[in-house]
Design brief:
126 residues; alpha+beta; six-stranded antiparallel sheet; 6 strands
């Protein structure tokens, strides 16, 4: 999928982060597809694109917290509308598994109706 179409929909990161499109393998691509299914199956209104944004914060004591937000666009020209999905935790679990071993702070999953899935993540600059 052409990454340029999402440029204005990505998080605005500061200079302390490095962001990239995820280049996976069979196993991680399957997990991303499962995460997308969890989310897409739950939205009952007509939609063009869904965006799941996951955040990971590690504090100085080594504790890690996760949060996520969901939004969807009804049409390609529409703005995003916030939405609370029940299966967001299962999708986020798939994403944390995909990024296991990576020092990530933010991950964005785009699901575009009839076009596929794109996955983007950010982490501190090494």
């Amino acid at each position: 999928m052409n990454a340029d179409i999402f440029t204005d929909q990505l998080p605005h990161s500061d200079c302390a982060t490095q962001c990239q499109w995820f280049d996976g393998n069979k196993e991680t691509d399957a997990l991303i597809a499962i995460a997308a299914e969890f989310i897409a199956e739950e939205l009952t209104v007509t939609w063009f694109r869904i965006r799941l944004v996951c955040h990971r914060v590690c504090d100085s004591e080594g504790k890690t917290t996760f949060s996520a937000s969901l939004a969807y666009m009804e049409t390609e020209q529409d703005d995003y509308h916030a939405w609370c999905g029940l299966d967001c935790l299962n999708a986020m679990s798939c994403i944390t598994e995909v990024l296991k071993g990576k020092n990530w702070s933010e991950a964005v999953l785009f699901i575009t109706h009839y076009k596929g899935v794109s996955f983007y993540w950010c982490g501190p600059v090494a």
